[in-house]
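Query structure, 414 tokens:
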């Protein structure tokens, strides 16, 4: 049995590679030792506020280093990170934080006015940490003050940590109200470890992490740019995977997607991996490359991963013209089910048909009664994925029972 915990893994990386870069954001750079120490400050503030085991900590933030620092800090304290869509209006925020039983909110000072309006509706929130250079409301604590007050030694709650500690990722609400998908950290790590740049033995524990990081390897740790928001599953999971692999997450300095800026980052920071959300990102990238052929050195980039939006074959073929060694992995999945199906394109394979996916080894198509649907039969079906997956939806046993079913003695995400 494995017992992976994100904080334990990342602290081990910081011990083994303290001087390696962990985060880059514009001119600012964090080593793994610095990331570890700053996350201790966040964890210390959460514990000092009286929050208990598995208290919920919301990230109401744009992309920036504080998103990953506060996620790390919550995990250190044995608490639960909760993603928050920064485009939500007041009613949506109040619903989300109430539904998630949030007790701390890490928010950008640019959202202070909206947060202030929501405060009376979420009386369970005990701590508000304000990120950014603007004025800090009197009801909040400056994030940098919390970081500066990091306790001596590692910050950890008296209840410890373990693989059962949760990460909550709320769905977008396209099929009803947003639902909190409960991932055990052990399961999420195990799923991401299957395709990680630096993979660890499934049951090797922290000793396996240390052993793996101490030996030379043909595959160095990744330098990864998450193109989409970190509050989105694609951005968050790929960033977590990069940190799991002792890598560096390179964050674009702008708060909006600019294709030229992303390509500049790839060249300047020798980025090896980029995550995107289909043609919404890929078409502007291709347009920039076509408009300025030869402008960017993309020789470091070998992997582009997409999920969430269709990625068309003609755009993939266009990207390959500019980056012939690029491997493009188009994944079919969701916050509830990672790795349902995928499509790989590269210079050798060429590009597959748009929206053509190969089912993964643990995926099947079933009908409402759990019987397999034969390919080519013309019958509609449901995708079902077995193996490691979420515990269920937070405080929603009815929808959980519909989505996670036992078929032939095994639990499947449907």
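Result returned for the query:
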């Amino acid at each position: 049995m494995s017992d992976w915990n994100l904080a334990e893994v990342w602290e081990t990386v910081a011990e083994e590679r303290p001087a390696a870069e962990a985060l880059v954001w514009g001119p600012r750079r964090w080593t793994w030792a610095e990331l570890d120490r700053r996350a201790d400050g966040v964890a210390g503030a959460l514990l000092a506020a009286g929050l208990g085991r598995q208290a919920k900590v919301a990230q109401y933030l744009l992309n920036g280093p504080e998103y990953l620092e506060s996620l790390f800090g919550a995990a250190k304290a044995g608490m639960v990170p909760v993603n928050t869509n920064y485009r939500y209006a007041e009613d949506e925020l109040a619903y989300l934080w109430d539904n998630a039983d949030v007790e701390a909110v890490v928010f950008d000072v640019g959202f202070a006015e909206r947060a202030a309006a929501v405060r009376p509706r979420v009386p369970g929130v005990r701590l508000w940490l304000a990120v950014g250079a603007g004025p800090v409301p009197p009801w909040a604590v400056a994030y940098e003050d919390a970081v500066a007050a990091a306790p001596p030694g590692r910050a950890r709650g008296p209840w410890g940590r373990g693989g059962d500690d949760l990460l909550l990722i709320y769905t977008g609400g396209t099929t009803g109200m947003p639902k909190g998908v409960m991932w055990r950290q052990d399961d999420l790590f195990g799923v991401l470890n299957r395709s990680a740049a630096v993979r660890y033995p499934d049951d090797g524990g922290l000793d396996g992490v240390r052993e793996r990081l101490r030996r030379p390897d043909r595959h160095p740790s990744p330098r990864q740019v998450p193109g989409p928001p970190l509050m989105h599953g694609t951005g968050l999971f790929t960033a977590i995977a990069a940190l799991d692999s002792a890598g560096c997450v390179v964050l674009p300095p702008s708060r909006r997607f600019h294709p030229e800026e992303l390509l500049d980052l790839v060249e300047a920071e020798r980025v090896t991996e980029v995550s995107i959300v289909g043609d919404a990102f890929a078409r502007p990238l291709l347009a920039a490359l076509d408009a300025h052929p030869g402008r960017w050195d993309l020789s470091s980039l070998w992997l582009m991963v997409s999920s969430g939006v269709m990625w068309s074959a003609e755009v993939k073929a266009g990207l390959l013209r500019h980056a012939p060694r690029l491997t493009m992995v188009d994944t079919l999945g969701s916050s509830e089910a990672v790795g349902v199906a995928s499509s790989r394109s590269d210079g050798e394979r060429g590009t597959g048909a748009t929206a053509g996916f190969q089912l993964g080894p643990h995926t099947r198509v079933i009908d409402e009664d759990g019987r397999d649907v034969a390919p080519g039969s013309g019958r509609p079906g449901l995708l079902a994925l077995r193996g490691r997956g979420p515990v269920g939806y937070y405080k929603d046993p009815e929808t959980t029972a519909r989505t996670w079913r036992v078929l032939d003695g095994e639990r499947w995400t449907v």
